[in-house]
Amino acid sequence: MHVLTAHTITWAVAGTLAFGSSPTSGLSLRPRLAEPVDAEAGSEDAAPAEPDAPASPPDGSEGTDAPARLEPPPGQAPPADATPEPADSGEDAADADLDTAAREAAQAYFKGRMAYDTGAYDVAIAEFQRAYERCLESETCHAPSLQFNLAQAYWKRGEVKQQVDDLRRARELFVAYGRTMEARGEEFDEATLQANLAALDAKIEYLELAARAGEGRPVGPTPAELRLERRMATTKGLHVSGAILVTAGALLAATAIGALIARGATKWMLDQAGGGRPGADNQNSPEDDRRLRNGYALSGRVAFGTLIATAVTLPIGITLVASAKIRDREDRLLDEQLEKKRKLRERTVAWTPGGALLTVRF
Predict the structure, then answer these.
(1) Is residue 193 domain-shared with residue 249, that is, in the same domain?
(2) Smaller CB count within 10 Å for the chain: N or C?
(3) Residue 209 lies in a domain
(4) What distance in Å separates the CA atoms of residue 213 and residue 208, rounded to the nearest whole number?
(5) How many CB atoms lie within 10 A of CB 18?
(6) Which of 179, 214, 249 is the last residue of a domain?
(7) pLDDT above 50 (res 93)
(8) Number of folded domains in the chain?
(9) Where does a domain end: 158, 184, 214?
(10) Residues 37, 108 within the same domain
């Protein structure tokens, strides 16, 4: 006889409840929990705890109102501390601002390109300006390219509306773009930039002349041409003044030489009055002797004065003539440059901005 213990009875009852009393009952893959056995029939193989009883907190406190903690998914280690750490608000906010600036700059840039391609240059200028301002607040955005594009937009609008102010603004932005690229040590197409500046200068000059003509004022030479005319007039004056002084110096030198000859002749005549012998009696009358002596003194004074005048006027005249020749050569070079500009201005009456917009990195 086997002794039926409480443990054996428990599993027997569990088996009966699990598989049922009828062989036709359905099988369940999950066994049912056995009912607890009466304490009197049990032993120290303690009865299983009720499954619906909530577990007590480890510190022994009543955790009836405590929220349940989320368990990590299978295969993942539980976090050391479920409480989230506060984020570094300063650095994260700065990064967020930079990202926002770059994003807004990119949005404004693409809007500006679309407006530029469709001929809406007012919108393109506003969007490129906004993109440039936001780009300066971002470390990932290439601001000089937006300067170039903004200059192109001003140039286009200035061409369409024939506005000198827009063309001047475009030139300023082109110059700023070149200086910024040089300061950053980045390569750029300097030849294209210089060609754009030359074309803008010619167009501005042309529009200013046209504006003067439209106001009823005579269209005369440009300011540069006026400066060259004044310079050439000064050069001509130097030529004339130098030639006069050189001529005067030559005449004074001739006068000085004549005075010296006359002085020498007078001295010879005085010497011959005594027969050419030292200490001999003077054969000239007092009148002739006084006349000869006065002529000798006068010729000496004339020779001395004309020599001094020659020493002053002749070097000045030579210097003026030499300076006039140098300026004349420079004036011819300036005139050739202005002639090239005049031809360029004639060719740029219908000039349109060349090149394309630059692609901006964000």
Answers:
(1) no
(2) N
(3) yes
(4) 9
(5) 15
(6) 214
(7) no
(8) 3
(9) 214
(10) no
Neighbours of 213 (CB within 10 A): 11
SS3 per-residue string spanning the chain = CCCCCHHHHHHHHHHHHHHCCCCCCCCCCCCCCCCCCCCCCCCCCCCCCCCCCCCCCCCCCCCCCCCCCCCCCCCCCCCCCCCCCCCCHHHHHHHHHHHHHHHHHHHHHHHHHHHHHCCCHHHHHHHHHHHHHHHCCCCCCCHHHHHHHHHHHHHHHHHHHCCHHHHHHHHHHHHHHHHHHHHHCCCCCHHHHHHHHHHHHHHHHHHHHHHHHHCCCCCCCCHHHHHHHHHHHHHHHHHHHHHHHHHHHHHHHHHHHHHHHHHHHHHHHHHHCCCCCCCCCCCCCHHHHHHHHHHHHHHHHHHHHHHHHHHHHHHHHHHHHHHHHHHHHHHHHHHHHHHHHHHHHHHCCCCCCCCCCCCCCC
252 and 313 Cβ atoms separated by less than 8 Å:
yes
State the residue for tokens 């607040």. 137
For residue 188 the two structure tokens come to 């750029």
What number of residues does the chain have? 362
Q: Is residue 286 part of a domain?
A: yes
CB 188 within 8 A of CB 145: no
Of 198, 149, 207, nearest in space to 176 by CA: 149
Closest CA to 147 of 135, 159, 158: 135
Question: Which structural domain, as residue segments, surrounds residue 260?
Answer: 225-347
96-133 pLDDT, tens per residue?
A: 555 788 889 899 999 999 999 998 999 999 999 999 99
Instruction: Please choose, from the candidates 355, 319, 334, 84, the residue with its C-alpha nearest in 3D space to the C-alpha of residue 199.
Output: 355
Predicted local confidence at residue 138, as pLDDT: 82
| pTM attached to this predicted model | 0.42
Contact 109, 127 (CB under 8 A): yes
Q: What is the domain-level CATH number for residue 136?
A: 1.25.40.10
Q: Tell me if 113 sits within 8 A of 146, measured CB to CB.
A: no
